[in-house]
Amino acid sequence: MSSGGLPTRSITIDPSDLLELQKDVWSNQFAPVKLVMDGVTMEAQLRFRGGHTRNYQKKSYEIRFGDDQTLHWNAEFDDPSLIRNALSFRFFNLIGVPAPETRHMWLVWNGRPHGVYLELESVDRTFFNVRQIQAQSLIYATNDSANFSLIDPETKQTKKSLFSGYQLMKGSDATKTRLVNFIKRINRPVKQSLKVYIAKRLDVRQYLQWLAGAVLTDNYDGFDQNYALYEHTPTGQYRIIPWDYEGTWGRNPYGKLCRNDQVPVQGYNKLTRRVLAYKQYRQYYRKLLNKLLASQFTVQALDPVVEDIYSRIRTAVRDDFTRKWPYETFLKEPEVIRSYIEERRSILKKELKQWTE
Predict the structure, then answer these.
(1) This prediction's pTM
(2) Which InterPro entries does UniProt cross-reference here (predicted)?
């Protein structure tokens, strides 16, 4: 197999450490490895990452190295295009929502090729420093209990903890308390006092930009989980960052073709419903969606982005025999994505016309 010109990452791991990792694929325990990246050899720590994909033969990894640096290596095993996460995050950045930077890479494991991976920037201290964003806290939404509701999505009963579904990455117990109080408040009746509170504690315009991105990409798995929240230090307001967007652009998280109307124009979750309960915010959101449908969310705007990513990985994917999908399927995916964009535009334009104030 050939790297096809992609940057190469090489991992060396002791067989005993690898066996220890493989004993429990659901463990988040790290193993020591040697990492060669950009011609530099260094000590690092590696673990498995992901959800159902941990059971796959080709796994995804999180690697930590250097001065508290973290990268995510996604196998993108279910996605025949291998670009849906990359395309989604490129799109979010284009519409003004900070999202992780990505690059495709070639992984070598104990001297043997592991094929094409997507390297994703971690949402952490470095992420904020690079963008000169002041964040006093960071919270990951790790499962569908992170739906901003008082009700557990599984039991349909009141949650035992309103911090359920979240993982504190930066902050203290006071950070948890503030989020719990925020969730309590937004579940109160829709009144002017609630609108005042939301405007104080949530960067509403940034949230609606994120909502537009999630709706346009049709990511039904991105409203109750697969996002990060941070408190913007100068304003004290919550802002949101997207994460895990492989189930988008016409395919579900398992790579199956799906209907392109899974996510309604209004999106999902309790916070979204509360924000859109107010006419001022609905009007802003409508205007934003119409603007994006006329500009960035078009085949003309996105086709060059798709082709740019494809041109970088086409040779490596051809030579990668660890992939799940046939190379012929990979080559047809740009057309699947183009068809999705056209159909999704039509669906959303129709829904916007039917969505009454």
Answers:
(1) 0.95
(2) Spore_coat_CotH_CotH2/3/7
